[in-house]
Amino acid sequence: MSFATALRCRKCGQEYPLQPQSLCNFCLSPLEVTYDYQAMAKAVTRDKIAGGPRSMWRYRDLLPVESEAVDIGAGLTPLVKADNLGRELGLDQLYIKNDCLNPSYSFKDRAVAVAIAKAREFGLDTIACASTGNLAASAAAHAAKADMKAYVFVPADVEPGKLIGAAIYKPVLVSVNGNYDDVNRLCAEVARRYKWGFININLRPYYAEGSKTLGYEVVEQLGWRAPDCIVCPAASGLLFTRVGKALDEFSMLGLTDPVNTRLFVSQAAGSAPIANAFLAGSQHIHPVKPDTLVRSIAIGNPADGYYALRVARQSGGGAGTVTDEEAIAGVKLLAQTEGIFAEAAGGVVIGVLKKLAAAEVIKRDAVTVALITGAGPRTQEILSSVVQPITVQPNLQSLEEALGVVA
Ligand SMILES: Cc1ncc(COP(=O)(O)O)c(C=O)c1O
Ligand SMILES: [Zn+2]
């Protein structure tokens, strides 16, 4: 049994039963899962969570799932104290949340695990999604485990490694001639016609709830303490808002002291509608046409942009952008200081963190967590310049000559 009670409109408060629906019929604003927090508070304790499964399902009481989980092992990824990187950036208490280590190599496994469980509860036999790559892989992997059909839609220019990363699970893979926002529009039409569970359309409220577990884990792994600052990548802005919700829920349930975490959005400069609005002091998100090699977070018209902006402001946090070159430098810096190979979205986080630390927006002694949400090996082509081997003949003399070693 879960403590979820309804879907509620984030704008007008209209409530709906827990069903496959993501927008309010009256004002077209996003719906969000609400819970009976009083009952939840009686059931949830630190000890109960700590004694739970070694996966995201240790937070099951805070999720809207009634049925058996579709569990491919998502969550409980390492929170690593990043002293080497911290030294480079001038941060004494820096941590990396390494969500590259999820089964399909990104944080999306958290969100999909919840969405697909709900799809099954709703009696749907087919799931689908619009994706910049990572969601497609995760949806297809979970569909394989759940023995469901999957249709995944991606922009035609998605990286080859991301295509293989989805295709290996044998979904119907649809490559759309257009960017992510075009893919999303097509999927909205498809969703109206076919009775499928669209992970980021009619199942979006449940998908969103799964993302919260990233925030819960950070707090639990810090010893039930919310950090002072979190730097998070944003595409649609959903993850960012749900990290905020996770912290609020933990404090509301008495699992932590009141939370004062400052939340910072990071985006690539070529696709930064949320960060740009923050930096311009605007209340409105102006859609952009993405132009960046950081494809996984290249969403020009972010569905949760407005709410992400609000979370950044209300938390006393902020926003930042980096160029593609700075993002790649961020990927290298993280790999070469901490041994963690992230995709370019992780480079964006590190690049933005570097700027925030240099400007002392994030202070040296702040407990700071950088969320690294996707792994590097599937998008290697952007890093081909790092490969500069020393070529030698298979003998010691050749090696020593090449290394300049004097015998
Ligand atoms: C690696 C990675 N990080 C972060 C995000 C951001 O997700 P959201 O749409 O919730 O902002 C994505 C989205 O695709 C992603 O692939
Ligand atoms: Zn409404």
What is the strand and helix layout of this fold?
Elements: E1 4-9, E2 15-16, E3 31-35, H1 37-43, H2 46-50, E4 79-81, H3 83-89, E5 94-98, H4 108-121, E6 126-130, H5 134-146, E7 149-155, H6 160-167, E8 172-176, H7 180-193, E9 197-198, H8 204-221, E10 229-233, H9 238-252, E11 262-268, H10 273-279, H11 305-314, E12 318-322, H12 324-338, H13 344-358, E13 368-372, H14 396-403
Parallel strand pairs: 5-13, 6-7, 6-9, 7-8, 10-11, 10-13, 11-12
Antiparallel strand pairs: 1-2, 1-3, 4-5
Helix pairs in contact: 4-5, 4-8, 5-6, 8-9, 9-11, 10-11, 12-13
The structure holds pyridoxal-5'-phosphate and zinc ion.
Biggest sheet: strands, sense, closure?
Answer: 6 strands, mixed
SSE string, helix = H, strand = E? Answer: EEEHHEHEHEHEHEHEHEHEHHEHHEH
**Structural class of the helices, strands and pairings?**
alpha/beta
- The CATH topology of the domain at 79-105 and 209-386 is given as Rossmann fold
N→C terminal distance: 72 Å
For the biggest β-sheet, the strand order reads: 4-5-13-10-11-12
| Overall helicity | 25-40%
What is the gyration radius calculated from CA atoms?
21 Å
User: DSSP helix count?
Assistant: 14
Beta strand %: 15-25%
Please report the first level of CATH classification, the CATH class of the domain at 79-105 and 209-386: Alpha Beta
